[in-house]
Inverse folding.
């Protein structure tokens, strides 16, 4: 399938005029839809996307001028072309005043019409291209952005360089905050697809019922609320890369559809029958223990094998302690620039404190710690007092408080406090793996997540998802 332009909408009450406009445009490859009246056109505009509108000045009910006025108040960016009885400066001014981008006086040559329409098509293309460029400018993923001097990071950058230019599917595994998203972005940027779109979908953040239509699109009326036909994000990623983050959280029925899509790039929009096809490279990531998810019957093994063509395992920060200071200095430079505080170094004691922490939240935790330190610091160097009290924090969580009445707290408040300490402690012990913590507490993952929300337990990461410590070899493929 080719990713085509939306249709041109022709509004004319004369059947012959509609037909001849339609012929000229469809011969040139445009798709065209027609309305007999302004009223009908306004309804159609509310339902679907159009490239532009071509309207006659004189229509049966509401006039063309009135129609354009109404149309532009609702869709100010939609280009329009008005056809007037004959070209006079007065009519031209009126057409432009009503919001038309251009006008044509009858009779006109087909080339004049095509010229006006191609200007709109070009504008549409440029706007889309700009949007894609803007989106990419925010995400200038490059290899140099993946900071670290440990052998495993060198190996990782080398591996990215090797794998990026191929079309191989990549599965990125690693605890929360280890840089999976960064790696996925670098793979796209260094690929031959870098000029096309990079589309990222977080499978855990989109409600299960909407994820399929987000991915594959839907037809109008496919479900309540599907007022318009919508293209899927896989279509947006045509020629480029799609990054499915938190893939282990995808429901099993959708996993089956993804499997089919991975076989040959074909899919059907929700509520549709037509089989569509795109050319997309897929990168997936998860911080869950994917083997555990397969064993729990939550993830399809066949899908795992399809995704797992090349596997990257990102090492947790505590396994590459030499990177801690390099990353800390990298974030110091970054935040001293953005926060505009000329702090250039860490005091000896601060460095000592940074290296002795075991970083359960990995690089993300380190980044947050440095940002906070720069905000708090009042001297020329980062002092230990501006860093969190790691030892006390860890110690507090380790030694369960002796059961006693605290102030004037009620039993419920004290129990919640006890529960919070216990759950936090178990999470920390399991390096914030929800699956393992839930197992130890003998409750389901969902029950644990619910409790964490209720008890306001923040794992120090952006997501409420778990991290699973992958064991085994780094970046085994
Ligand atoms: N090697 C690195 N060099 C520089 N910055 C890094 C590195 N690794 C991670 N970061 C930064 O740490 C933060 C977390 O990284 P990222 O979002 O890629 O983690 P993640 O593995 O996707 O985590 P999650 O599983 O929680 O989604 C980001 O701000 C990222 O830029
Ligand atoms: Mg991520």
């Amino acid at each position: 399938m080719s990713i085509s332009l939306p249709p041109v909408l022709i509004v004319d009450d004369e059947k012959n005029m509609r037909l001849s406009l339609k012929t000229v445009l469809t011969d040139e490859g445009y798709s065209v839809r027609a309305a007999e009246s302004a009223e009908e056109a306004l309804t159609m505009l509310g339902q679907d996307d159009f490239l532009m509108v071509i309207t006659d000045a004189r229509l049966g009910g509401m006039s063309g001028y009135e129609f354009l006025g109404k149309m532009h108040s609702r869709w100010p960016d939609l280009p329009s072309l008005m056809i007037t009885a004959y070209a006079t400066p007065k009519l031209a001014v009126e057409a432009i005043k009503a919001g038309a981008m251009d006008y044509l006086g009858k009779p006109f040559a087909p080339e004049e019409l095509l010229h006006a329409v191609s200007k709109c098509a070009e504008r549409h293309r440029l706007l889309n291209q700009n949007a894609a460029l803007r989106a990419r400018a925010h995400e200038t993923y490059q290899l140099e952005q993946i900071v670290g001097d440990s052998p495993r990071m060198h190996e990782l950058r080398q591996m990215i360089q090797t794998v990026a230019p191929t079309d191989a599917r990549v599965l990125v595994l690693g605890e929360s905050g280890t840089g999976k998203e960064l790696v996925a972005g670098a793979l796209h940027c260094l690929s031959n697809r870098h000029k096309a779109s990079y589309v990222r979908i977080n499978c855990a953040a989109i409600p299960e019922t909407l994820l399929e239509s987000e991915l594959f699109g839907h037809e109008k009326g496919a479900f309540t609320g599907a007022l318009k036909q919508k293209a899927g994000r896989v279509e947006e990623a045509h020629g480029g890369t799609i990054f499915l983050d938190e893939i282990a959280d995808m429901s099993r029925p959708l996993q089956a559809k993804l499997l089919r899509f991975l076989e040959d790039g074909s899919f059907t929009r929700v509520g549709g029958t037509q089989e569509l096809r795109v050319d997309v490279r897929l990168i997936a990531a998860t911080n869950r223990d994917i083997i555990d998810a397969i064993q729990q019957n939550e993830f399809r093994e066949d899908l795992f094998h399809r995704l797992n063509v090349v596997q990257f395992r990102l090492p947790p920060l505590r396994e590459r302690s030499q990177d801690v200071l390099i990353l800390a200095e990298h974030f110091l430079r970054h935040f001293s620039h953005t926060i505009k505080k000329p702090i250039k170094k860490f005091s000896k004691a601060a460095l000592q404190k940074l290296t002795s922490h075991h970083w359960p939240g990995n690089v993300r935790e380190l980044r947050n710690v440095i940002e906070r330190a720069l905000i708090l610091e009042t001297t020329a160097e980062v002092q230990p007092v501006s860093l969190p009290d790691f030892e006390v924090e860890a110690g507090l969580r380790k030694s369960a408080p002796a059961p006693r009445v605290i102030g004037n707290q009620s039993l419920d408040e004290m129990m919640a406090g006890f529960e919070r300490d216990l759950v936090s402690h178990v999470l920390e012990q399991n390096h914030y793996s929800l699956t393992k913590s839930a197992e130890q507490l003998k409750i389901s993952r969902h029950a644990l997540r619910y409790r964490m929300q209720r008890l306001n337990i923040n794992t120090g990461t952006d997501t409420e998802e778990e991290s699973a410590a992958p064991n085994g070899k780094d970046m085994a493929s």
User: Anything to note?
Assistant: The chain has four domains: 8-135, 139-315, 318-388, 401-454.
